[in-house]
Write a structure and sequence with these properties.
140 residues; mainly alpha; 6 helices; 59% helix
């Protein structure tokens, strides 16, 4: 299977997921998968609330999206740039301008993700506001 076929299959799948996320609320629709870590332990992982955050972003509700997963909202533009660069590489033969990221920054980002995952599970203020939906008065 060629890399272009894989690219178009991935883009088609992503488009279908985005359409489903824009039409159906992951909090109430029964077909979106729950977080395995939260289902098994009751703890929130760094990605918990990301589907609900994307749903809110697709509906233009930035503050609600931020309330469900602030880390995902902040990281999304960087992820989209990386995806756009990969698409450009496959379609045009060259990606978007690349930025050199020192190894220390990558380790810092990984550590930040872990720390965010820990802090959002602390049961006292202000960290309890990092739980998905807590800023909106919604839990879980």
């Amino acid at each position: 299977m060629s890399s272009r076929t894989i690219l178009w299959a991935g883009l088609s799948t992503a488009a279908l997921v985005l359409v489903a996320l824009s039409l159906f609320d992951p909090a109430t629709a029964g077909f979106f998968p729950p977080c395995p870590l939260h289902a098994l332990t009751g703890w929130y992982c760094p990605g918990c609330g990301s589907l609900r955050a994307l749903h809110q972003l697709l509906r233009g509700n930035l503050s609600s999206a931020f309330a469900f997963n602030p880390f995902a909202v902040v990281a999304l533009p960087f992820l989209l740039y990386g995806v756009a660069s990969q698409i450009s590489l496959q379609v045009r033969g060259r990606g978007l301008p690349a930025f050199f990221i020192p190894g220390g920054w990558i380790w810092t980002m990984a550590g930040t993700i872990v720390v965010f995952g820990i802090l959002r599970n602390l049961p006292f203020a202000p960290f309890n506001l990092l739980a998905p939906g807590a800023m909106l008065g919604i839990r879980g």
